[in-house]
């Protein structure tokens, strides 16, 4: 696993764990495959925002290779 707060670490098609907006308090991680990278900046302190193939949007907390 590598840091999900650096855009360069995340590729379309990568298997990642994200935290959805509704799950930010609990920290529940949702697994999925990246469809689109939504964050434009190269880094973000809370994780890069992505859209999964199933349409869910959240911030990357873990990258599973």
From TrEMBL:
Top-level lineage group = Archaea
Task: Name it.
Answer: YwbE family protein
InterPro entries from the UniProt entry:
DUF2196
């Amino acid at each position: 696993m590598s840091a999900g707060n650096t855009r360069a670490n995340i590729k379309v098609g990568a298997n990642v764990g994200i935290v959805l907006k509704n799950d930010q308090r609990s920290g529940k991680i949702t697994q999925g495959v990246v469809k689109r990278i939504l964050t434009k900046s190269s880094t973000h302190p809370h994780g890069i925002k992505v859209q999964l193939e199933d349409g869910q949007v959240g911030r990357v907390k873990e990258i599973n290779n």
